[in-house]
Design brief:
Distance between the termini: 111 Å
Mean pLDDT: 83
Number of strands: 30
Structural class: mainly beta
Radius of gyration: 33 Å
Low-confidence stretches: 15-51, 373-391
Number of helices: 3
């Protein structure tokens, strides 16, 4: 091999070597080592939650008085639930855990007591109850009691002696599963909120069965042709016999005509605001046509106009605004109105009855005395799962 050819061979080999095996430094500078493409981890889209908007509008009711404490004396209560006002102003209270009906005057002074624990309801004898949760006073002063865990209605005379009783455990006609709220229509019939069966039953004032409507469910709109409820605790009739129901398990208010067809459905779960409820538990209609709904564990009473049929929101009363004690955490369960449109609310947490009165701008607000507190166990989802709550 001559010298010229050998030099040519070396030059060609060098160039090919450089092209085939570039220096690492060059490679690192111009072509960085590839990295894995990041893998995105999908996240669940949070479910939409209705926004709670605190209401700060016009005040139409204010605190007036408070009576009671924990105990079994005539001026004491133990988990009171239902309440009713007689035409003469007397207050009838379903003192539920004491298994009796208390009678107070319109200023909270004890007058009488009917009942004890048991199952007997013998004619012209004192009654026995098991968790009486609602009471209603007929215009003739006869007293109707929802004897809830005995699954019956007990009719008493004005002295508290048994006149009649009807009902048994079940889901048929004239049978009950924890009956609660009682009301009267313009024909004198007695409407019973059969809470555990999520329905309403209508009887004559002597207990003769007339009709029933309603069933368990959660989905309901104003266009639904059947009454859908979930363990409702409260009910009252307005002047045209529309049933205003506190649909407790569904956290809403529903209105039905006297045949059980829906008129309106309003509300969802929340702590504060015009159309939110945490535990709607009782309904009263005042002589002026205001529908007042006691919202159990939020410590509120929410007001709607029931006079014109559209049930627009009017106002609300909050215990935390009127009862100036940071430790006061009521749990409302019953509500009733007297002839002066004053409202009487039972508080099972503090074993008291609170009276509210229509608010006048010229009045000086009244501060309530602190109640005697009794702890209540924390309940988790009291309306879910198998069975029904007692409280």
């Amino acid at each position: 091999m001559n010298q010229k050819f050998f030099l040519h061979y070396l030059c060609v080999s060098f160039v090919l070597g450089v092209l085939a095996f570039p220096p690492p430094l060059w490679a690192r500078h111009h072509h960085p080592a590839p990295t894995d493409t990041p893998t995105e981890t999908p996240t669940a889209t949070p479910a939409p939650v209705p926004t709670t908007i605190p209401w700060n509008g016009k005040k139409i009711y204010t605190f007036d008085a408070m009576w009671g404490s924990k105990g079994s004396e005539l001026n004491q209560l133990n988990d009171p639930e239902g309440i009713a006002i007689a035409s003469d102003g007397r207050i009838f209270i379903a003192d539920t855990a004491n298994n009796r009906i208390l009678v107070w005057d319109q200023d909270g002074k004890p007058l009488d007591s009917f009942g004890s624990f048991g199952t007997r309801a013998d004619w012209r004898n004192p009654p026995q109850f098991n968790h009486p949760a609602a009471v209603f006073v007929y215009p003739s002063n006869q007293i109707y009691v929802s004897d809830t865990l005995n699954n019956r209605i007990v009719l008493l005379d004005d002295k508290g002696l048994v006149l009649s009783t009807w009902g048994a455990q079940g889901s048929g006609k004239s049978q009950f599963n924890q009956p609660r709220a009682l009301s009267q229509d313009h024909y004198g019939n007695i409407w019973v909120l059969d809470s555990g069966n999520s329905r309403v039953q209508v009887f004559s004032n002597l207990g003769v069965f007339n009709s029933t409507w309603g069933s368990f469910g959660t989905e309901a709109t104003a266009n639904t042709l059947t009454a859908i409820m979930n363990f409702p605790l409260g009910m009252a009739l307005n002047k045209i016999d529309q049933a205003i129901v506190a649909d407790t398990g569904n956290s809403r208010m529903e209105v039905f005509n006297n045949g059980g067809l829906p008129v309106t459905v309003q509300g969802w779960y929340g702590d504060d605001g015009p159309y939110v409820f945490r535990e709607p538990s009782a309904v009263a209609v005042t002589p002026s046509g205001i529908a007042a709904i006691a919202d159990g564990s939020s410590g509120r009473v929410v007001f709607y106009n029931s006079r014109n049929g559209d049930f627009e929101f009017l106002s609300e009363w909050r215990a935390k605004d009127d009862i100036l004690n940071s430790d006061f955490t009521p749990r409302f369960r019953g509500i009733a109105s007297d002839a002066q449109s004053r409202l009487y609310v039972t508080d099972t947490q503090d074993n008291v009855v609170i009276r509210l009165k229509p608010f006048k701008e010229s009045e000086t607000p009244v501060t309530a005395p602190p109640p005697t507190y009794t702890p209540t166990p924390v309940e988790v989802s009291p309306y879910g799962g198998v069975g029904y709550p007692i409280r």
